[in-house]
Each structure stands twice: as structure tokens, then as C-alpha cells.
């Protein structure tokens, strides 16, 4: 039976980290909210899961995954669940917790990227918190982005199996997520990421290696890959972007 | 061999969610950063793990746990790992992912609580972002806290095994974390949480049931339980707290 991925239509957002894993593995999946209402899909099908007043363990927010009767919420949790099934997790049990910890750190970074444009309230428009967004984005580019990327660079450099992968000696979902982080940061902050390859060579080499994997390249060229836009997590607001030292 | 918990000394913070699980299970553990330097413990021992320029898979930030050779970072990941070993996870495999998803949602709430006092930059003092903190805290109390607590209330009400536990029919680490959330929110926002028991009866009943468990009660009365203070996640700044509708 096909996996059912539930995430907002029209943006990459947090759902994209799951899509990349499903696409790399050529898994059979339905992107529920992007489907046709006549087929029982669409946003309504997702909202009814979120709003269920009777179902056991309803999800707090998208993305969530359904695999038969099991409903799994939270990006890193979905990937932890799918990883072994899609052959995108380390074979070693201990390293699976390492991968999970790295993915949760990526999730933390994604939340901080979101808050560069919504530092005060996720329910208000960007325009209503633009002043504060400038301050938060400046701090993000000066301190937080280098801290996270420097950390990922160090994890790659110190991987006992080599700097080609974040964990172990083979591709995992964490590598795919690093690709997405680099893509997203470059879209949102072209000036601040201008020297990314120079400063974080292993991170950027991993990004480039993922981009040319046949299944990923085919996905990126397909209509299934939504373009980045200003309703997602990574938003390009020129006033928030500037070159960093 | 004892588990080694690494977290900042002097504050409950994110480490407390792990401490509560270890204490409930009466597990053998060392709170490394709070130990004596002469015993090879203390903050220095933690910093050297964080700053390692040779170790495989260094952690990004505390808390992290060492179990023999395995180093496990990220609060929810540590609890996912420890849960089955401490008999604080559901026996059912599928429900373990449910528990993990709920714990990650608690982690998200904790990050939002942190940002009520640090909405612009975690590296700056509260006093330097007080104005923005007032705006973010007001939004948190009006929208985000009710959204999270209403969700947890719904999960309890809709638990097929009864409203005594977040997942399944027995105590899990998720229940312990809900206790800590209620404790923390009441400390930080006494006015805004004045009507908590009325609005979220299942959540508060769970909090009360955890508080009187013998191992938890003994821990709370011990010097191992640090008091809440204004260096942790849950901080009481009276100017950020106000009664809500």
C-alpha cells in the first residue's frame, strides 16, 4: 500500500524533507493534500485528520505520514520511521540514533530559518513584523547560520567513514536533508551564502553529490518539485539578506 | 554502567525532561556537568565533548547522553532511546512512534517558550530584546499556549486507553514531560495559567498524578531538583505575564 504524505499544497516547507527521501527511494506514495478532491484527496482530507475529534493520537500539524493504520507526525519522526524501510538509514542500530539526532538538529535550524521572517507571531503577516525580522535575520546570518553550518561541516570532516556522508559510509535521509538546507539557504539568502562553498566545502560537496543522483535530479526537474516561494520556510526577502564577513 | 547525562549546571532547562525519566525509573546515572572536577566531571567535561575536533558525531548542544560508547544528542532522541530501557515507553512498536511525535511537539513548545524571552537573538541578554519579548509573549499566551495545551488535552481525551496517559494505558516519558510543561508554564506565567485546571482538566490531572508518584515526589524534594530560575527555559518576568481571556 502506498505511503500517504500529508502536507500543505503550494510550498516545499517541512514536507520537502520527507518528499526527498520518498523520491530518492522511488517509494510508492500519495501527496494527499495535492491530490484531487474527487479522489478523496486535497486539503480537505488533510484538515479532517488534523481536526478529528474522535481519532486516536491526532497530529498537531503537518507534515504527517500514514502507513496503513499508523499515523506518524513530525518530520524527523517520519524520517526515522521511513529510513530503514527506504534503505536510507544506517544499518547499525546505534548510528540510527546518531542520524535521528542530526535530523532533529536540522529541524531546529529550519525553525530558526522560519523565525527570521516570523520572529514575533506565526499568525501575523511578515509585513507586520518586518522590523523585528530584520534584527532576527541579521543575528541568524551573523551567528546562527555559521554555527549550524560549521557544525555540519565538522560532522562530515570527523565522520570516521569519510566526509561523503553525514552518518556512516552510505547515503541516508540526513544527507538528503543537508541538500535541502543548502538549497533553501541559497534561495533565501543569496548574498549571505555567496561564500558557502569556500567556508563549508564538505557541506557543499554533499549538496552537489545529492543533486546529481538520478532519482533526485529527475524529481527536481519534475512538476512534483514545487519552486521555492514566499509562503514556505525559506523565503527570499531581499531586505533580510546581506553579505557576511 | 551508569548513564551519563550532560547538561548545563544551575538550570533545569531541556535536561530536566531527561532527569525526570531517569529519576522515575530510579536509573543509575551521573549528572556530569554538576559533578566534581576532581572526579573528572564538571562543565569542563561537557565542553570537551562539545568542542571535540576528532570525535565521531559530536553533539550540537546539550543535553546529550552517553551510554557506553554511544553518544545520543537531542532531548526527544534521548528519551526515545531510554524509554524502552527504563520501561517508560509503550510496549507497542507503533505507539513508540506516537510517543516520539508527541515528545517532539513538546520540544517545539519548549522552543517557543524560550523565544518568549529571546525572540531576536539567543546570544543577547533579555534586557536587550525586552520590547520584542513583550510582543512575542503576548502572542504566545493568546495563541500558541492555548493551541499546544488544547492539543494535549485533546490527545488525552481521545486516547482509546483512557485520559490518564498521553499514549497507551501506562506511564511513559511523555506523561513526565507534560508534568514539567505544566510546572514550567505555571512558574513563568502565574497569571496566564491561573485558569489552567479549568480549561485543560485532563492535562492538569495528569500533572497532579505525576507529582505524587513516589519517585518523582522524592526527586522534587531532593537537592537534585534545581529550582526554576531566570537562566532556564521557563523564566518568570512579570512584565511578560498577564491574565488571558
TrEMBL record, chains A, B:
PROSITE patterns: GST_CTER, GST_NTER. It comes from Paraburkholderia denitrificans. SUPFAM superfamilies: GST C-terminal domain-like (SSF47616), Thioredoxin-like (SSF52833). The lineage of its organism: Bacteria, Pseudomonadati, Pseudomonadota, Betaproteobacteria, Burkholderiales. Residues 1-90 form the GST N-terminal domain. It comes from the Bacteria. Residues 100-233 form the GST C-terminal domain. This is Glutathione S-transferase.
Amino acid at each position: 500500500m502506498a505511503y500517504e504524505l500529508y502536507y500543505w499544497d503550494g510550498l516545499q516547507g517541512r514536507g520537502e524533507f520527507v518528499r526527498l527521501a520518498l523520491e530518492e527511494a522511488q517509494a510508492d506514495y500519495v501527496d494527499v493534500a495535492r491530490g484531487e478532491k474527487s479522489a478523496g484527496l486535497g486539503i480537505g482530507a488533510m484538515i479532517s485528520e488534523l481536526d478529528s475529534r474522535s481519532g486516536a493520537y491526532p497530529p498537531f500539524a503537518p507534515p504527517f505520514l500514514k502507513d496503513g493504520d499508523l499515523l506518524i507526525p513530525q518530520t524527523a519522526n517520519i524520517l526515522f520511521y521511513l529510513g530503514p524501510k527506504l534503505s536510507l538509514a544506517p544499518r547499525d542500530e546505534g548510528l540510527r540514533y546518531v542520524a535521528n539526532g542530526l535530523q532533529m538538529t536540522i529541524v531546529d535550524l529550519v525553525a530558526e530559518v522560519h523565525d527570521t521572517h516570523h520572529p514575533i507571531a506565526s499568525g501575523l503577516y511578515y509585513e507586520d513584523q518586518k522590523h523585528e525580522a530584520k534584527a532576527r535575520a541579521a543575528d541568524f546570518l551573523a551567528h546562527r547560520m555559521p554555527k549550524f553550518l560549521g557544525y555540519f561541516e565538522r560532522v562530515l570532516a570527523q565522520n570516521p567513514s569519510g566526509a561523503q556522508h553525514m552518518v556512516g559510509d552510505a547515503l541516508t535521509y540526513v544527507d538528503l536533508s543537508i541538500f535541502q538546507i543548502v538549497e533553501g539557504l541559497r534561495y533565501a539568502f543569496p548574498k549571505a551564502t555567496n561564500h558557502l562553498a569556500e567556508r563549508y566545502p564538505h557541506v557543499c560537496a554533499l549538496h552537489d553529490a545529492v543533486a546529481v543522483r538520478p532519482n533526485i535530479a529527475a524529481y527536481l526537474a519534475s512538476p512534483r518539485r514545487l519552486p521555492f516561494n514566499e509562503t514556505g520556510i525559506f523565503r527570499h526577502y531581499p531586505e533580510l539578506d546581506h553579505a557576511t564577513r
